[in-house]
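Subject: Sanity check before I submit

Could someone independently write out the structure tokens for this chain? I want to compare against mine line by line before I put it in a report. The sequence has 142 residues.
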Amino acid sequence: LSQIALSRSLEGNLPEGRNKLQTQCQQIVQAYNMTPDAEALQFLPLYIMGMLKSQAFRPTADIPADLRTYIWMRLETLNVSQLAAYYYPRMMALHNVQDPIGVPDENARVQLPDMLNLTSESMTQDGIYLLEDGEVMLMWVG
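---
Independent answer below. Compare away.
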């Protein structure tokens, strides 16, 4: 869907790309309501909302044309898991990490903490959190 909206925005204009995303989201929600056992569709509207709020599709003038072009070109090169992280960033709590999380195993693989929902209810005042979208990492220290 991201690639379709990008193409629509490049061929036409940004509002056309946003409208395409909104129309697809409405159709998906309607299809999900008809077949509630289709669990694969339940998070898709969340990702579409992330797309609409991202710098790639946000309808504001505070994003310079060269930055938006850079983002569009970058998004065309990302795979699905990278796009998912960009549109719905990963947040992890670092203040309560227990072994073996964060420690390399015998294959040099590191297990990451569980991802949290991107809500204030997922956070505590005295916690330390890492927010990562594949391009930028932010650390919040309470």
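---
OP: Matches mine. For the report I'm noting this point. The helical segments are 2-11, 14-34, 44-53, 65-75, 80-87.
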